[in-house]
Specification:
By secondary structure, the protein is of the alpha+beta class. The protein has seven helices and six strands, in the order H-H-H-E-E-E-H-H-E-H-H-E-E. Helix 6 packs across helix 7.
């Protein structure tokens, strides 16, 4: 705990664990600790903890708490903490990839269809343009996939530059793009 968060051991001993929480996490950790005091099974929760150096971002940590109050040797709660920063980063990356095209960064077909369904359900006026690059496959085969990928990225950049910020631009797959705007 002191290694991960930079606190001096003398500053940590005797202080409640929740006093090191970022403000939005204290209640969740306090509830888990209270629950662990009455449970015989493992209780876990995640809480964001403050670093000793205020310039360092708070650290998301997973706590696992085991009740050993009845154990004559321990007579307490045993708390194990794990840094879950990488897990959170990976989760955010996967969530982004599930909704965006990895090559162009544009939203994917799924996001576009969800947005179109919402607009239709709200009976809002909208316009949609379908864009397909002519002879892209032949060019891609002739010049290679690396050049083809560069063409797709540049195409996405140019279309984005031409449309309003409020318009939705999606890569549907291959050389197909769709742009939609609500009026």
């Amino acid at each position: 705990f002191t290694r991960l968060l930079g606190h001096d051991v003398s500053h940590v001993i005797g202080r409640p664990l929740v006093s090191f929480c970022a403000t939005d996490a204290a209640n969740d950790l306090a509830f888990a600790i209270e629950k662990a005091g009455t449970e015989t099974r493992l209780v876990s929760c995640e809480a964001t903890m403050r670093h000793h150096d205020p310039a360092v971002a708070p650290l998301p940590m997973r706590f696992e708490i085991v009740n050993l109050l009845d154990d004559p040797v321990v007579e307490g709660l045993v708390v194990t903490a794990y840094d879950v920063s990488e897990l959170h980063h990976t989760r955010r990356t996967l969530e982004h990839l599930a909704r965006h095209d990895a090559l162009t960064g544009l939203v994917n077909r799924s996001v576009l269809l969800d947005e179109l369904e919402r607009v239709v359900a709200e009976h809002r006026p909208a316009a949609v343009i379908f864009i397909d690059l002519d002879k892209f496959k032949r060019s891609n085969d002739l010049h290679g996939h690396q050049i083809g990928d560069a063409v797709l990225v540049e195409t996405a950049r140019r279309i984005r530059a031409l449309i309003p910020d409020s318009a939705l631009l999606a890569r549907l797959g291959g050389d197909e793009f769709m742009c939609g705007a609500v009026f």
